[in-house]
Specification:
The chain is of the alpha/beta class. About 45% of the residues lie in helices and about 20% in strands. It is built from 15 helices and twelve strands. The strands form three sheets. A five-stranded parallel sheet has the order 2-1-4-6-7, covered by helices on one side.
Length: about 350
């Protein structure tokens, strides 16, 4: 966990810039981390980084075109050293995944002292505002922060105080429905995604979205409804594919990525299984892997990647991986052997 000194340092970095550029991951934690920083600063531009856990050199041009005086990176587990070397302004990198050795950034990783709080948790401790956004981000990452009771007191209809597990918060409450909405508006065309993100920088409270009380909120709801039908179809197919083995493996190809969303919900429904969701795209299988407390999926993944054309990593019970299609069957066989 980071300290008050760290939070103050990040806050000072925000206070002492005029044209920040924010890069964030395309999940609720990444989105909410960006929203927390941006709604505090009220200046700058946000860039959602899709399709890869790494911030790659291709984004150097984005920095050059925008001309920021400071770059913030939130909830990205990897950043290319080539990107870091090319950016000539200060880089503040806020994360909670495995610690990465790098030079050229101001690196704040909550995992330095054990378990890593989600990035949205860190950002909330920095800005000390927008509690509901912080809770959406942390619950979206299967984590209940120490300020969750404050949220339940303020919004008891969204999250009853009796809820003590993140998976129950995510799949049995109105808060969970809101988190799902935030996740699904990040799917699809980048122009639509950016329109929704822009709206979220101005939303006053969670009820505005839930109730669709403004034209802006209704735009978000419409975007969500255009996506959720695809998701429900894939979810039902995945549930039907379940058998008696220790693994629930589901492969699909779709214009939108639901691997993280599917793996989380399937783990909630089948907690004794190791979940592998794989989306085929461009000759690769982009995977999300999940396990409950009885298994360390990160340790299994490390061994399963030996002699495999691919890469992956993440948390103890939640990982991502990208495997060449021709190696995927061998990769799954390796996981079965580890089990």
């Amino acid at each position: 966990m980071l300290t008050e000194k760290h939070y103050k340092e990040i806050r000072e970095e925000l206070d002492n810039c005029k044209r920040p550029l924010f890069f964030f991951d395309d999940d609720p934690d990444g989105l909410c981390s960006f929203l927390l920083l941006y709604r505090y600063k009220r200046e700058g531009k946000g860039i959602v980084v899709k399709s890869s856990p790494e911030l790659k050199p291709m984004f150097i041009k984005t920095v050059e075109n925008y001309g920021p005086d400071k770059v913030f990176i939130v909830d990205k587990p990897m950043v290319s050293q080539e990107f870091i070397d090319a950016v000539k302004v200060p880089i503040i990198w806020i994360d909670h995944h495995d610690i990465i050795k790098n030079s050229g950034t101001k690196y704040y990783n909550s995992r330095k002292d054990g378990f890593g709080e989600p990035a949205s948790c860190i950002c909330y401790r920095v800005v000390k505002q927008d509690l509901w956004i912080a809770v959406c981000g942390t619950v979206g990452d299967w984590y209940l922060p120490d300020f969750i009771s404050e949220f339940s007191k303020k919004y008891p209809d969204l999250l009853p105080s009796k809820i003590k597990k993140p998976e129950k918060a995510l799949y049995e409450t109105k808060l969970g429905e809101l988190v799902k909405m935030l996740s699904f508006i990040l799917k699809g065309k980048t122009s639509d995604v950016l329109s929704c993100v822009k709206i979220l920088t101005r939303i006053k409270d969670p009820y505005e979205i839930i109730e669709g009380s403004t034209a802006q909120a209704r735009f978000i709801i419409k975007k969500y409804e255009s996506v959720v039908e695809d998701y429900n179809r894939l979810l039902n197919e995945a549930i039907k594919s379940n058998d008696k083995s220790k693994i629930l493996l589901f492969k699909y190809s779709n214009r939108m990525s639901f691997t993280g969303d599917l793996s989380n919900e399937l783990l909630y429904r089948f907690p004794k299984k190791l979940i592998i969701i794989a989306r085929e795209k461009d000759g690769e299988m982009k995977c999300s892997l999940r396990s409950s407390d009885h298994l360390s999926v990160s340790e299994i993944l490390k061994k399963a990647l030996i002699d495999i054309d691919g890469y992956g990593g993440g948390h103890e019970h939640a990982c991502g991986a990208c495997i060449k299609k021709e190696d995927f069957d061998k990769f799954v066989d390796n996981i079965r052997k580890e089990l």
